[in-house]
Each structure stands twice: as C-alpha cells, then as structure tokens.
Design brief:
CATH superfamily of the largest domain: Nucleoside Triphosphate Pyrophosphohydrolase
Shape: elongated
Strand order of the largest sheet: 7-4-9-8
Structural class: alpha+beta
Order of helices and strands: EEEEEEEHEEEHH
Helix content: 10-25%
Number of domains: 2
Length: 180
C-alpha cells in the first residue's frame, strides 16, 4: 500500500473558502489514526515583474497574523477555474495591472500536514495598467520594489509569507534575474 486509506471522512464545517474535515485513516505502514484536514480548492499566486526589474508587492492586512504583511498577489481558484485564468484575474483585481505573458514557475503545497491546498506560482511580465477591482474584504496597498531589494527583505525577515518567498526566489533565479 503506497497511500493512506480513508476509513471515514466527516465534514465538520463548510467554510467560505475551504472545508474542514475529521478523518480516520490507515497509513501505508498499517497505523490507523484520526486527523483533521482542510480541503482547499487551490490558488494561484503571481510575481508581477516590471520591465525595470521591480516587482509589485502587496502590503496586505491579515487578521490571522494580526497585521499587515508583504505578499505577492494571489487568490483562490473558482470552481472549475484554470490556474492561469485565476492568476490573470487576481493580478488585475489586486494590483491594477494586466500582463501579456505568464510563465508557470512551480506548484507548491504550503501546509501538507493538514491541508490539500496547492498554490500555482506564476511569473507575469509585459505589465500594463488596468483597472484595480478589490473585493470588499481586501485591505491592501500596492508597492513597486526592486527585485533584489525584495530578496533582501526575505533574508531580513521582513517578508515571511511562504508563497511570496517561494515566488520571489524562483523568479529571481529564473534567467539570472536578481542577485541571490
């Protein structure tokens, strides 16, 4: 047996974005255990790179961490939505920019111990101004930051968001961008 077997799965709470389940599983080594799982539809996150090698970063309020944090634009996939389409939508909605080119950088699993969420990371280039369209519950400010400075912000602990760290590091390493 290479995968766990789910013996029982009970929906505990259906949320606005994700669902919370209690599951009883049997692991590949035969051990049976109870665990809680967050089932998430997935997300797309974007590193918007301007022609002058600055990136658009968000300073966004996150209640769970009690304050504003630095992030790249990102959003949850709508049912049946393609990850790239989600990236295009979220880039424009959150930053007020559209991109001519999207390149997939990676797919990450930020919380594999208790969530099935997968975040598709994209590099967006060829940026042009568009209409920003924030959701009512989004409190954020868009900043242009030199890519090298953003990498330094990661090293200094100013950027702590995992998807942002992964996206910036991958973008900086791509084609020799940034000094890493």
């Amino acid at each position: 047996m290479n995968k766990a077997v789910c013996n029982r799965s009970t929906l505990i709470r259906k949320g606005r974005v994700f669902d919370f389940y209690a599951e009883n599983i049997t692991l590949p080594n035969g051990v049976t255990m109870d665990m809680e799982i967050i089932r998430h539809p997935g997300a797309a996150a974007i590193v918007p790179l301007m022609d002058d090698h600055t990136v658009l970063l968000l300073k966004q309020y996150r209640h769970a961490v009690d304050g504003f944090i630095w992030e790249i634009p990102a959003g949850t996939l709508d049912p049946g939505e393609d990850a790239r389409r989600c990236a295009e939508r979220e880039l424009t909605e959150e930053t007020g920019y559209a991109a001519r080119h999207f390149e997939k950088l990676a797919e990450i699993t930020p919380l594999p111990a208790y969530s099935d969420e997968r975040i598709h990371l994209f590099l967006a280039t060829g940026l042009t101004k568009a209409a920003q369209n924030l959701d009512e519950d989004e409190l954020l400010f868009v900043h242009r930051v030199d890519l090298n400075q953003a990498i330094e912000m990661v090293a200094e602990g100013d950027i702590q968001d995992a998807k942002t760290i992964a996206g910036l590091q991958l973008a900086a390493g791509l084609k020799g961008l940034g000094n890493n």
